[in-house]
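Same chain as my last thread, 421 residues:
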Amino acid sequence: MADALSTEILSDFASSNSTSSSSQTHDLANFRLEWIPDLMEKLCAKPIRAKDFVSIKFVIGAGKKLRQKYNEENLKVMTESLRKFEFEEDRGASACKECQRCYKYQHDTDKDLKYLHVFPEVLIVEEEAKIEKNDVVDEAGRRTTPEMLCAKASLEEFEELLEYNVPSFSQKRALLKRLKAYKGIIDQCDQKLSNMESLAEEEQEMYDAVCEIENKIELVEKQLEEMIREGRLTAGEQSVMVEELTGKLSELDVAKTKAEEEKKENRMKQITKLEEKVVEKIDTIKSKRPIVYTIEHAEELADLKAQVRKLKALENKSGLRTAAEVGRLAKLPGLIDRIEQIETEDKGWFEDECATLLFGEKIEPAVKEKKKTATGGGNPPRGGGGGWISKAASSSSRKKTSSGSGGVKKASNPFDLLGDE
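reply #2:
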């Protein structure tokens, strides 16, 4: 059974249609416990071939009505097998480069189902082209990534880069995930040096370049906390946060039950306090009206597309054209250029990754996208809010960016409740 299921999963991801299907769901109802290690080995021991980063959602448990279909040890055996192949738990994981070899547990209380999301390592044919779109240029004129530009910048420069290039909650979380990955690398380098081990050339280069990474992480986390408190999340961002925090409550409930069984009163008190903090955060998020991001010049864009549709219909009409029709068709190239200009305006870093959470659905250009001009260094673009603007759902308007204030103070971080991202 493990062979058949793994073959199905791998073949689906490797197929030509995998770019439109980077996620699969498989129900492990009546799946024998002894089959799980073999299944995890076939899927996770080595990189799988796919056209994009992927996720596999396994249904591993359910509530009272369907509980008998699932083995209660599914979660334990699966996570043990994943850790054997150096997978790590990441409660904010998604199908992206940074989340390869990660997994996360989810309890869907609406459907009363329990899931384990697995994000295997992927061998991607078109990976280079995907990375290039987000590339920027540093002060030396070298092509780099936004996260490396931020990691190398001074704290003052970093605050400026945040303000102009990472305006939304989900974009800040995307950057935070990458900065934490760099911190992990730096920590490993510190450990090597403390053990009197030499660093590899690439490690030494990064170790010398990255600066104040902990302060930068704290700054982003502080801004995220402020955005939650002030209600500057979209409906999609609110939904993701509530889902993750609800999953955390489920995990705390399991830990609390175990502590009760072991009669560890101090541990129970600690868990109760954590539960109160998580519930408070969920209540805060739910109490706020979501903001709405819209494309700048949206009305003009809708009008332009309507004109293009009419002219395309005229262009495809058979028969001779009148002089007036020829004159109208002459405007078509200019209209298409203007649509392209609006749709490809820079919306900040990680815009493709965060588009669904920001706009509700991914914004697809109506015409072929031009290559974006790389930005970076010490001169971030200033101006009219990039390619989109935010509108608060409440009557009061809110700013869309959150600039840093003075120095960065070390403070308690409620985002630790969600684990490292």
